[in-house]
Amino acid sequence: MHSALGGAQIPEMTMAQTKQPGLVAILSSPSGTGKTTICHMLMKRHAEYKFSISATTRPIRGKERDGVDYYFVSDERFDLMIQNNELAEWAYVFGHRYGTPFSEITNAIAADQVLLCDIDVQGGMTLKDKYRQAVTIFLIPPSLTELRRRLFHRRTDSSEQRKMRLETAVKELGYWHRYDYIVLNEDLKEATNEVDMIIAAERAKTIRRNERRFWESGQARLLGL
Fold this sequence. Notes:
By secondary structure, this protein is an alpha/beta fold. It has a single domain, classed as P-loop containing nucleotide triphosphate hydrolases (Rossmann fold, 3-Layer(aba) Sandwich). The chain is about 35% helix and about 20% strand. It contains 8 helices and 9 strands. The strands form 2 sheets. Strands 2-7-1-8-9 form a 5-stranded parallel sheet, sandwiched between helices. A hairpin with a 2-residue loop joins strand 5 (about 85-95) and strand 6. The protein is globular and about 60 Å long.
């Protein structure tokens, strides 16, 4: 590329030539709003996107795998993780404890990965307080009727659990304004695209791209790094 000033050579700057900084992306929503599905769709698109694996004291369900879906631990082990400051956040959710290990965050950021944290509202707020550079995204269903339909369609829950989830969902919806972004999940593909664009924009922010290591040498000189 030539400059108008004396025809000097200026290196092309393209996203393909640059490294992208790591990012913690917190996705929260009431149960049944699709945050887990969106996380998995994003990981299919981007090799450097990683799902944050939470520790939990609840039993394994269906085809879930330890170390893949969750770290399934005993109450005693969870207590030790709290005492040893191994958890960035933890909370009780429907009678069981869930927590985000610090190692998930530090390992992802060190590897310049996007860590997708699929966690509930209380966990999301706690994690944001501890890791200010995280971006928070709140997903909402198109209507309360649709949310009720999705929750009551879940075969893994009893009728009492479904009722409790719906009551909790209504309370959680009141927290949307505390998040950086809000995304309507009426169409799954469109919602995934919107979350994808939010993450791309956040990774391109100057406060995240202000280190020389994210640029080719010529680009770094051009930017004064």
